[in-house]
Automatic annotation (TrEMBL):
Residue span, Ketoreductase domain: 9-203
UniProt KW Transport keyword: no
Lineage: Bacteria, Bacillati, Actinomycetota, Actinomycetes, Streptosporangiales
Origin superkingdom: Bacteria
Entries under InterPro entries matching the protein: KR_dom, NAD(P)-bd_dom_sf, Peroxisomal_Beta-Oxidation, Sc_DH/Rdtase_CS, SDR_fam
Name of this protein: SDR family NAD(P)-dependent oxidoreductase
The entry's keywords: Oxidoreductase
Record-linked Pfam families: adh_short
SMART domains: PKS_KR
SUPFAM superfamilies: NAD(P)-binding Rossmann-fold domains (SSF51735)
Protein family: Belongs to the short-chain dehydrogenases/reductases (SDR) family.
Amino acid sequence: MAELRFDGRVAVVSGAGHGLGRSHALELAARGAKVVVNDLGARVDGRHDDGTGATAAEAVAEEIRAKGGTAIADGGDVATEEGARSLIESAVDAYGRVDIVVNNAGILRDKAFKNITCADWDAVLAVHLRGTFLVTQAAFGHLRENGYGRIVNTTSPAGLFGNFGQSNYAAAKMGIIGLTKTLAIEGSKYDITANAIAPIAFTRMTEDLFPPGARELLSPEKVTPLVVWLAHEDCETSGETYSVGGGRVARVFVAEGPGALLGDGGAEELRDNWPDVNAERPYVVPRNLAEQTEVHFQGLT
Ligand code: NAD
């Protein structure tokens, strides 16, 4: 089996001081990538007033260097324009280029919808959705110039399928899907791919949700092979989303069912055809708006 190597490649991994990001950064570095390990040392709720700052990122960068790899730490906040810009500048200043962007930083402010405050909403959207936008946009010009890039974004099953108490998080994570699909379209001309992973892993973010026995089964290291593959030049897949954890990987896709073509019977005809409207098979998986529009127009004939 030919090893997937990243010699000469430069990767930026956000939120890589702990959990999944740390695992991605270590593995990319072990395979030859020069890595910028970003983390501002936030708690799971995003607050970072405990003075830890960039310590977590520095510890991971040091771990990489101790193993013979190449890495630097960046303690910036990806939710800010300044933090995102300086993260990408760090990569270019230190290593001359950027090839791989892994948007992984994340926080939680879980509350039942009726109790969510604007601050909880904004904080979660800022790190996940705005952070993914800002870091990717800061890198995008470099990727276009190089005619090459691999973007791996991090969504969540909670966003794809919904989850009680996570309206802010789910909205951000589903927003990342739309962003990823559009990046795939806009990047295709420049050999820039963009995909999203929806992980399930035992980290400090999820340790209260899983039984202790799940720690090994759902280790972050079992998610990272998907990131490695999506970040590799041999992988040309783009615009896709994969659920991943414990060694299982599955594509998750947005599909459109066969639908029903209605006459002039108004809402009553719609009511009477409701099962057909909701039928799931046969479905199609449009890859962009144009393909979906074509499917719709075919359904009108
Ligand atoms: P984690 O808490 O271990 O890691 C998240 C990291 O992001 C932390 O080190 C934190 O300091 C950093 N971070 C937070 N805000 C930041 C900011 N503004 N700038 C820079 N860094 C910041 O959690 P994890 O489980 O490893 O989560 C990683 C990603 O995976 C997140 O996007 C999360 O939503 C997603 N995810 C995780 C799971 C899971 O099962 N663990 C499931 C679905 C999605």
